[in-house]
Amino acid sequence: MGDLPDYYFRIRDNGAVVFRVDTENRQRRIDMEEIATVIVKNGNIKPHGDRTLSAADTKAIKDWLAARVDMLARRDIDDIFRAVDHLNLTSQWVQTKATDPQLDEVTDTLLLAMHDLRSVLVRKKSERLMKDEAAE
Predict the structure, then answer these.
(1) Which of 11, 26, 51, 131 has the most C-beta neighbours closer than 10 Å?
(2) Which structural domain, as residue segments, surrounds residue 21?
(3) Rounded Cα–Cα distance for residues 48 and 59 (Å)
(4) Residues 6+ apart with CB under 8 A from 4
């Protein structure tokens, strides 16, 4: 068996369940012992049951948490760039392929979503510009 990590993080919607991986037993089996849960949103680490986490456990969990937060942030940006691609593809579809009944079905929803997005982007950009001017 190859080198396995000391910890396994089972991803959940809001974080992960943390297991300590043990392969150093007489049966040479992989044992996974649940040691904690971690919430990504607030960084909460809750030991499983009455367990006390070691310094190594806590460090491994905090390292995983920092990497997970970074990865999720990168995914968010990637999703936004995909949304831009979809907007461009939608424009092309409207221009070249859409039928009148299809346009009747999607136009109002698209216009409201784009108006909402534009309003938020303009407001946020204005806030950033005002903050930059105040800092100068």
Answers:
(1) 51
(2) 7-69
(3) 16
(4) 21, 23, 30
> For the whole model, what pTM was predicted?
0.75
Residue 3 pLDDT = 78
pLDDT means per 10 residues, the chain with 136 residues, are 84 96 79 95 96 96 97 96 97 98 97 97 96 90
Structure tokens at 12: 């959940």
* Euclidean distance between CA atoms 134 and 124, whole angstroms: 15
Q: Are 22 and 30 in contact (CB under 8 A)?
A: yes
In sequence order, what are the beta bridge partners of 8? 19
Domain boundary among 21, 44, 69: 69
63 plus 37 within the same structural domain = yes
Give pLDDT, residue 117: 97
Question: Could you tell me if 64 and 105 lie in one domain?
Answer: no
The overall longest dimension of the chain from CA atoms, in Å, is 71
In this structure, the answer to whether residues 61 and 82 fall within a common structural domain is: no
CA atoms within 13 A on the CB side of 38: 25
> From CA 129, how far away is CA 135, in angstroms rounded?
10
